[in-house]
Amino acid sequence: MFLTLTLLRKGIPGKQWIGKYRRPRQITWQMKRNTLTHLEREAENEYWISRPYMTPEQEYGHAAERRAQNWLQIKEAKFVNFPKHKHITDHLSHLKITKTW
Asked: Is pLDDT at 1 greater than 60 in this prediction?
């Protein structure tokens, strides 16, 4: 039964480019070229990543001051639009109108 279906099948069932029984894509020279350039780029990235810019001793705490300055700028930016402090007497001052003593 399966041999008959295989021999008499005229096409790929369903969508031809997706699924379990999909049609394989032809590998073109552009695909090979793009893969080679991608692999070369990846090899160059690995080369540069494998050589650190700073030693671990230099790297330790090198950005602490910059991070502290950034944090202060963020805090100041939050408090720029913050309203001034109001006391309870400011809120209730309108109640003293009829007070005579």
From this structure: no
